[in-house]
Design a protein that fits this description.
This protein is mostly helical. It has 13 helices and 2 strands. The radius of gyration is 49 Å and the shape is elongated.
Length: 295
């Protein structure tokens, strides 16, 4: 009987303990979900204080970056290695050109030589050429070259004296004083001038075979048509076919048209009648009539 009572008492107390335990679990869960355990310590930091702190960090980063940059010391560009070239900002092709040039036992003796051989850009050359260091004998050699260039320039200026500024009287040697005019062109200018019986217009110089426009401009800067030439004209009404064909601006086809027109009208009353000929080159009229007249 006592055992039965004890069991009943034990079971009752056991259920009460379980219920109490369940109660505690529910209470703790409520506290966990509904109570804010976050600290309020960070709430005291102001935004402007964070900005100042971040600025200090950024400045420290910049100082660190500058300290990591490679310092460039003066060097001889003839001995640039692959690694050195990469440090300077050169491309693989530019470094290879330098090495290929040096393998031929050739030397870089100036900044211009370096750019010519490697093909580096002007911007990169301006940055790295400040550190180029050539041997003293190279510097002395460059000074001598500059001095010789100056003397040659003075000599050239002296030799460029001409006997006349009249283009119709200039000699073979006079024309050669123009840069770009050698023996061949000087002779060609004089031959064409003789064919024209003298230059009447400046633009006739452009008619010289294979002459460059810049050369013509240089010629006209030094020589002018002081006096127009006296050209012997022929009468288009009485001239023979071959005589008219000698006109430097008349080819066989145009000469034939002129004679056909002359036969048609019997006689030209005025040289301006040439403009009535079908297919007549009006752009050459002012030059053609330098050699023709109608009487």
């Amino acid at each position: 009987m006592e055992n039965i009572k004890f069991r009943l008492w034990y079971n009752k107390n056991q259920r009460s303990g379980i219920l109490f335990l369940i109660f505690l679990i529910v209470v703790f869960q409520g506290i966990y979900f509904f109570v804010d355990f976050s600290s309020n310590e960070n709430k005291g930091i102001k935004p402007n204080e964070l900005a100042v702190f971040q600025k200090r960090i950024d400045s420290l980063k910049k100082i660190k970056t500058k300290s990591l940059k490679t310092k460039i010391f003066p060097f001889n560009p003839n001995y640039i290695t692959d690694f050195k070239g990469f440090q300077l900002g050169m491309s693989v092709e530019e470094i290879n050109r330098l090495h290929k040039y040096r393998k031929q036992n050739k030397w870089i003796n100036s900044i211009s030589d370096f750019q010519r051989v490697t093909g580096v850009s002007d911007s990169l050359l301006n940055k790295i050429s400040l550190y180029f260091k050539f041997p003293n004998w190279v510097k002395q050699q460059n000074k001598v070259k500059k001095l010789n260039a100056v003397n040659a320039s003075k000599k050239e200026v002296y030799s460029q004296k001409v006997t006349t500024t009249d283009i119709n009287k200039a000699t073979f040697e006079d024309f050669k004083t123009i840069k770009g005019v050698g023996d061949a062109f000087s002779k060609r200018i004089i031959n064409y001038r003789n064919r024209l019986q003298g230059f009447t217009y400046d633009y006739q110089l452009y008619e010289i075979w294979n002459i460059d426009k810049t050369v013509v401009k240089k010629i006209l800067e030094k020589f002018k048509i002081v006096e127009k030439p006296t050209i012997k004209k022929i009468n288009v009404n009485t001239a023979a076919f071959k005589e008219v064909l000698k006109n430097p601006y008349i080819d066989y086809s145009l000469c034939k048209k002129i004679f056909n027109y002359r036969d048609e009208v019997a006689e030209l009353q005025n040289i301006s009648e040439l403009k009535n000929i079908e297919g007549f080159p009006l752009d050459k009229y002012d030059r053609i009539i330098l050699y023709l007249e109608a009487k």
